[in-house]
Amino acid sequence: MSEKAILEIDGKKYEFPIITGTENEKAIDIKALRGATGGITTIDPGYKNTGSCESAITFLNGGEEGILRYRGYSIEELADKADFLEVAYLLIFGELPTQSQLDKFHADIKANSHVDEDVKKILDGFPKSAHPMGVLSSLTSALIAFNPTSVNVDSEEDMYNAIVKIMGKFPVLVAWALRKRTGQPLDYGDDSLGYVDNILKMMFKKPNSEYVVDPIVSKALDKLLILHADHEQNCSTSTVRIVGSSHAGLFASLSAGICALWGPLHGGANQAVLEMLEGIKEDGGDTKKYMAKAKDKNDPFRLMGFGHRVYKNFDPRAKIIKVAADDVLNSLGVDDPILEIAKGLEKEALEDPYFVDRKLYPNVDFYSGIIYRAMGIPVEMFTVMFALGRLPGWIAQWKEMRENKEPIGRPRQVYTGENSRSFKEVSER
Ligand code: CMC
Fold first, then answer.
1. Is 276 near ligand 1, meaning CB less than 6 Å away?
2. Of the residues 274, 275, 290, 306, which should be mutated to test ligand 1's pocket, given the most ligand atoms within 8 Å of the CB?
3. In what order do the strands lie in the sheet with 26-28?
4. Mean pLDDT for the chain?
5. For 70, 90, 119, 328, which has the most beta carbons within 10 A of its beta carbon?
6. Is the CB of residue 358 below 6 angstroms from any atom belonging to ligand 1?
7. What percent of the chain has pLDDT over 70?
8. Which of 265, 303, 304 to mutate to test the pocket of ligand 1 (most atoms within 8 A of CB)?
9. What is the CB-side half-sphere exposure of residue 127 using CA atoms within 13 A?
10. What pLDDT digit, counting tens, does each position of 250-308 carry?
11. How far are the Cα atoms of 204, 362, 365 from residue 270, in angstroms, in the given order?
12. What CA–CA distance (Å, rounded) separates 257 from 280?
């Protein structure tokens, strides 16, 4: 017999089905609550315990083990054995690609990687000081005007074409956002290179010299992109799904997702972590002082890169990135004092009752910036790198939302404002 939840309101009992996911997660299906009770709704600010959809893409579990799996494959195994393009295919289409599927996917992406020259004029209008996340979101939205056929995805073919277009053009926009900031001429990349190598070349090639991809840097970036590729219904992904649920196109939904990611409580944390660590270094490296600030409820300071809505034991991505940070810095011969400050802060936090009691552990953003910096990526670009990695996840989630024919996203509220009152002329107020 299927399980049911019974809710009693004013002595009257209502039954609701319980649905069970493939990992045995249970959820009370309250779709019928409003109708059955004559208008009672639920409230859960921040959606701390509200499931917005059923999804077959990513599983994460914040319990003892700290699990993250894309389509059933563990993040540890994918980060070790797969490359980013394979992972993108896996997330978007559900299975790891065969060699010929992967080759076709890559060829189609390359064939669609050209960005209209007129987009450069839009970029030109931004001041050099513009934050690259704002630039990226604007240019992603601007792409709609240059690719109007990507908006209506009424067939599988339309969907595929929109996907390869954005997978091809997005890295160009990322590279242009950087090159605008650093005053370098804009470029279109090199089709003879792999997906990630091409991104590096587009970002870093100087006008008067050859660019030779450093395999250590390429491998490290590939791994970071895989680790960021999806994370189920986080703030930016939920944004992408909810914007897309109005049948806004893929690029418009992604542009909104980029804005959601920008905030320091979400993807913007990687920039905030680096700035925090730099600030601590410049202030003499006194980590204890900053630990005290983070614990002081009258001080708005938070230990950036710590805490997570779901992971309450550890973030499996942070574990992999911490090891990678050591490896990459060693391999590149970079001695960055803020790595030691970061490790010191982590050690202190893990022994401090404030952090232990609240189950606050380093998250994906705590060590990633140290690797980006060792690669020569400026701090303002860190969240853009996160967006580059998250792109396939956003696409997969948007595609799933459309394929599942999800209804338009439209939460309820509990109104707490004024009751009905009469308008007063301005002279009477
Ligand atoms: N430093 C100090 N105290 C913290 C921190 C922190 N980083 N994070 C949470 N707390 C405290 C918070 O003050 C609260 O304390 P109390 O119970 O005494 O009021 C308690 O821990 C629970 O915090 P919360 O804000 O209710 O938890 P949440 O699930 O709503 O927020 C979070 C999760 C990630 C937004 C939060 O931990 C945070 O602001 N962390 C710093 C920013 C950060 O690193 N964000 C990246 C998240 S992972 C990648 C991503 O999403 O992009």
1. no
2. 306
3. 4-9, 12-20, 26-28
4. 95
5. 70
6. yes
7. 100
8. 265
9. 3
10. 999 999 999 999 999 999 999 999 999 999 999 999 999 999 999 999 999 999 999 99
11. 21, 11, 5
12. 31
Per-residue pLDDT at 188: 86
The protein residue with its alpha carbon nearest to ligand 1, atom 30, reads 309
Model pLDDT for residues 6-44, shown as the tens digit of each residue: 999 999 999 999 999 999 999 999 999 999 999 999 999
CB of 269 sitting under 6 A from ligand 1: yes
380 Cα–ligand 1 center, Å: 22
Q: Read out DSSP for 15-83?
A: EEEEEE-TT--EEE--TTHHHHHTS-----GGGTT------SSEEEE-STT-EEEETTEEHHHHHHH--
For 90, which DSSP code?
A: H
Phi, psi angles (nearest 5°) of residue 22: -70, -15
What are the residue numbers of the active site? 308, 365
Q: Which two tokens stand for residue 199?
A: 């991104």
Residue pointed to by tokens 């978007």:
92
Q: Mutual orientation of helices 99-111 and 156-182 as an angle, nearest 10°? A: 60
